[in-house]
């Protein structure tokens, strides 16, 4: 499985970061609030948009340190 | 009343797309009588083409109509599209490169091809193939439905126009295969991004800014009776529904045959990983489109007689935009329907030719015959979908599609868990699949197929597909554990080496310029 041919070194541990978006988004009790607003937009909405960007940053970071893949 | 200026723009863009669709057969020229070429473009797509292809494939016209439609009807709940399309990418990043690699190594064209070898079971492969076909058919119909909403809003009779659109779609898919939607996806995306960026600036400007929009939404929610309120913040009674449908939808999406076409036509694992990093750009776009549902509420749009809440977005455009730009927006939705409809019909056709026709009817067929069967079936699939749309009430089609997700998620153990867990038993897999399908379908019947949420007696209403996959996984785990103790795990005919990158591919991937600082060669 992944461990035998997955990422080595920092890549292996970086993959744990991929759990973070699940925690941040799958518990709406964390963010289902109207305040604080951003330009009139309720927190519930802008928080989730913010997580699109944070999610990209996390996956991008994991990609950058990931060594598994095409190289035989 | 026919809106001629809108119609002319849609026709011009339609002609452009038609030319591209047929021209695509000459792009990256190869023998299209070979299924891996017609159906997967020879697994040759790099990062950018894959980005357009998967974006066009997953974020469909129907999504663009339905997400604001749900927000318009129910408020904040409709935004589950955001967590759904964010958490999906870590999952893709972790699992799809491995599935890509084994498929590339063994020449698999469909997910069921993998299942067949992994479990040495053409019966289980058939079950997974049928699941994919049944889940995909109504999805294709919904794309046509998206075009129908647009056509009706332009004031022309949808039937004739739909038939024309579908003859064109069917012809270029037959000729060019997956190359056609890949090229057209570029046009689709350019149009959609243009329309959404303009909409998200221009409409709030006309409605007095976001503050004023949400004030109106909140005011409307405050005076509405409790069940009809459309709040802009999720209410606690829907927390579990929101999380479970976001997670369940994310688990199901990449199991769909059309998603796998997008994945398999990539040229390397790293192309898929890069796309897992960059595809969320579309999620942002989808979220913005969801906000248009709130804008429709604030603008006082009413559900239409013919299409209910699903016409909210088209009505909003028509009310807010000058008519020529409404034409551009409608063309964006129509083109956005053609791309996934083409890929979905290719995917369903490949399942038929590889996992049903070759497996059960004509095992000795040549590669050329195989490609021909796929091409013909891709036509039949579209005729069926068109008949669906013209013959059945719209609500029925949407309900089938809802059911499609509940069914599709049951392929998770076969297509993803099986990549990692050796000691599975094929009969535990079959019973798990049956259990998940059975529970899911039973709950859907309880809800008369009108919603994908059901109260199973714990945590209030949750996504039916989520409950189905839990049952499926529990059966697979217990059954496989017992079988493992008895020494009868299903090893199948694949070994760990089949999941490793091929030495011969190393050169090929070097032609892909790395987006990150160069990797140390051979360090993997």
Description of the molecule:
The complex is a heterodimer of chains A (72) and B (524). Chain A is mainly α and 72 residues long. Chain A contains four helices and no strands. Chain A has helices at 2-5, 10-14, 20-25, 43-65. Residues 1-5 of chain A have low confidence and may be disordered. With 524 residues, chain B is mainly alpha-helical. Chain B has helices at residues 4-23, 35-38, 47-58, 61-74, 81-106, 111-119, 122-153, 158-176, 179-206, 209-223, 239-253, 257-264, 269-278, 280-298, 312-320, 323-361, 367-391, 394-408, 412-420, 426-446, 464-485, 505-510, and strands at residues 453-455, 461-463. In chain B, strand 1 and strand 2 (461-463) form a beta hairpin. In chain B, helix 3 (47-58) packs across helix 13, helix 7 packs antiparallel against helix 18 (394-408) and helix 9 crosses helix 14. The longest helix of chain B has 39 residues, at 323-361.
Helix-strand blueprint:
The complex is a heterodimer of chains A (72) and B (524).
Chain A: H1 2-5, H2 10-14, H3 20-25, H4 43-65
Chain B: H1 4-23, H2 35-38, H3 47-58, H4 61-74, H5 81-106, H6 111-119, H7 122-153, H8 158-176, H9 179-206, H10 209-223, H11 239-253, H12 257-264, H13 269-278, H14 280-298, H15 312-320, H16 323-361, H17 367-391, H18 394-408, H19 412-420, H20 426-446, E1 453-455, E2 461-463, H21 464-485, H22 505-510
Antiparallel strand pairs in B: 1-2
Helix pairs in contact in B: 1-8, 1-9, 1-16, 3-9, 3-12, 3-13, 3-16, 4-14, 4-16, 5-11, 5-13, 5-14, 6-7, 7-8, 7-16, 7-17, 7-18, 8-17, 9-10, 9-14, 9-16, 10-14, 11-21, 12-16, 14-15, 16-17, 20-21
């Amino acid at each position: 499985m992944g461990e035998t041919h997955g990422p080595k070194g920092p890549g292996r541990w970086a993959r744990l970061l991929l759990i973070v978006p699940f925690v941040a988004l799958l518990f709406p009790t964390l963010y289902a609030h109207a305040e604080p607003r951003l330009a009139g937009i309720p927190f519930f909405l802008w928080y989730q948009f913010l997580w699109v960007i944070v999610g990209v940053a996390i996956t991008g970071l994991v990609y950058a340190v990931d060594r598994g893949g095409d190289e035989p | 009343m026919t809106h001629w200026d809108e119609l002319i723009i849609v026709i011009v863009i339609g002609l452009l797309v038609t030319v591209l669709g047929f021209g695509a057969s000459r792009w990256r020229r190869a023998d299209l009588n070979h299924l891996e070429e017609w159906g997967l473009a020879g697994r040759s797509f790099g990062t950018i083409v894959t980005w357009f292809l998967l974006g066009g494939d997953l974020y469909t016209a129907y999504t663009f109509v339905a997400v604001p439609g749900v927000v318009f009807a129910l408020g904040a709940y409709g935004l589950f599209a955001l967590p759904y399309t964010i958490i999906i990418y870590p999952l893709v990043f972790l699992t799809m490169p491995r599935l890509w690699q084994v498929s590339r190594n063994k020449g698999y064209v469909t997910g069921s091809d993998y299942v067949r070898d992994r479990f040495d079971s053409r019966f289980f492969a058939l079950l997974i193939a049928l699941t994919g076909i049944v889940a995909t058919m109504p999805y294709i119909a919904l794309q046509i439905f998206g075009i129908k909403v647009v056509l009706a809003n332009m004031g022309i009779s949808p039937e004739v126009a739909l038939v024309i659109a579908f003859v064109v779609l069917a012809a270029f898919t037959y000729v060019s295969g997956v190359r056609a939607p890949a090229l057209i996806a570029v046009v689709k995306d350019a149009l959609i991004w243009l329309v959404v960026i303009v909409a998200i600036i221009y409409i709030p400007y006309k409605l007095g800014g976001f503050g004023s929009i949400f004030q109106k939404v909140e005011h409307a929610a405050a005076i509405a009776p409790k069940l009809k309120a459309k709040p802009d913040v999720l209410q606690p009674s829907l927390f579990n529904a929101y999380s479970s449908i976001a997670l369940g939808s994310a688990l199901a999406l990449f199991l769909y045959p059309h998603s796998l076409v997008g994945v398999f036509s990539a040229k390397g694992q790293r192309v898929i990983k890069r796309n897992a990093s960059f595809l969320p750009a579309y999620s942002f776009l989808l979220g913005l489109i969801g906000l248009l549902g709130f804008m429709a509420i604030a603008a006082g749009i009413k559900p239409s007689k013919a299409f209910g809440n699903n016409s909210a977005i088209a009505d909003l455009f028509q009310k807010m935009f000058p008519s020529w730009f409404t034409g551009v927006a409608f063309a964006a939705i129509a083109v956005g329907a053609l791309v996934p409809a083409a890929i979905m019909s290719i995917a369903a056709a490949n399942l038929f030719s590889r996992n049903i026709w070759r497996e059960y009817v004509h095992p000795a067929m040549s590669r050329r015959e195989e490609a021909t069967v796929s091409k013909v079936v891709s036509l039949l699939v579209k005729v069926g979908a068109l008949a669906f749309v013209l013959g059945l009430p719209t609500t029925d089609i949407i309900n089938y599609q809802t059911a499609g997700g509940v069914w599709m998620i049951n392929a998770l153990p076969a297509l993803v868990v099986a990549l990692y867990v050796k000691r599975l038993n094929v009969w535990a897999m079959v019973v798990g699949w049956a259990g998940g399908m059975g529970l899911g379908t039973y709950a859907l019947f309880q809800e008369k197929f009108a919603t994908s949420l059901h109260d199973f007696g714990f945590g209030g209403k949750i996504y039916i597909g989520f409950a189905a996959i839990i049952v499926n996984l529990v059966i697979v785990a217990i059954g496989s554990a017992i079988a493992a103790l008895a020494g009868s795990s299903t090893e199948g005919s694949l070994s760990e080496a089949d999941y490793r990158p091929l030495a011969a591919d190393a050169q090929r991937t070097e032609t892909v310029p790395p987006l990150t600082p160069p990797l140390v060669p051979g360090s993997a």
